[in-house]
């Protein structure tokens, strides 16, 4: 009998790569207010709570309350995604099909938005993702453990018998602090050696690797 109770996927950089579109949306909204969002701004906020992005945009001249900045950002992102459909990263879909065939509970846990995560979930094997935990649902986003603890609660599982797939330092810290095993995938920001319990490339990852983290 498998001891693995559930698998949790980060979103951007793990399942899909929407970061270029997010950067484009931030650049567009900031420019509308006379400011300039740069690659340095993107790197400084990568994987961090949305609040930090919104505060940075305000500092760059977007003179609106954070809630309104967030709505503008989500609107711009929706328009960009409608024009440029996002697909799974290489190697991800075969893994999702393997997980779906095994009937393991699965969820997306992200600091991003519900709208973007739900688009990705709709492209997965039908019914695979049983829950989505996004920035809008938590009071403390990654690197705090709250998002992963909430996801485990939604699926009714013990974090100690779950695996989280992450590609960022803040995400790995969040899942590890929640008591989960963390499998680190390559991303834009290197994850320190003390975070994570295994490391694989997207194309090499199989369900057996995830089970091994729990079952040995």
Question: How would you describe this structure to a colleague?
Answer:
The chain has 216 residues and is α/β, with parallel strands linked by helices. It folds into two domains: 6-17 and 86-215, Rossmann fold, CATH 3.40.50; 19-83, Orthogonal Bundle (DNA polymerase, domain 1). The chain has nine helices and six strands. The chain has helices at 19-32, 39-45, 50-59, 66-83, 92-102, 114-123, 146-155, 169-177, 207-215, and strands at residues 6-9, 106-109, 129-133, 162-166, 181-184, 198-199. A six-stranded parallel β-sheet has the order 3-2-1-4-5-6, with helices on both faces. β2 (106-109), α6 and β3 (129-133) form a beta-alpha-beta unit. α1 crosses α4 (66-83). The radius of gyration is 17 Å and the shape is globular. The mean pLDDT is 93.
Strand and helix layout:
Layout: E1 6-9, H1 19-32, H2 39-45, H3 50-59, H4 66-83, H5 92-102, E2 106-109, H6 114-123, E3 129-133, H7 146-155, E4 162-166, H8 169-177, E5 181-184, E6 198-199, H9 207-215
Parallel strand pairs: 1-2, 1-4, 2-3, 4-5, 5-6
Helix pairs in contact: 1-4
Specify the biggest β-sheet.
6 strands, parallel
Q: How is the largest sheet built, in terms of strand order?
A: 3-2-1-4-5-6
- Distinct helical segment count: 9
**How many beta strands in the DSSP annotation?**
6
Which spans of ≥5 residues are poorly predicted at pLDDT below 50?
Answer: none
Supply Rg: 17 Å
The residue fraction in helices comes out at: 40-55%
Structural class: alpha/beta
The N- to C-terminal Cα distance equals 13 Å
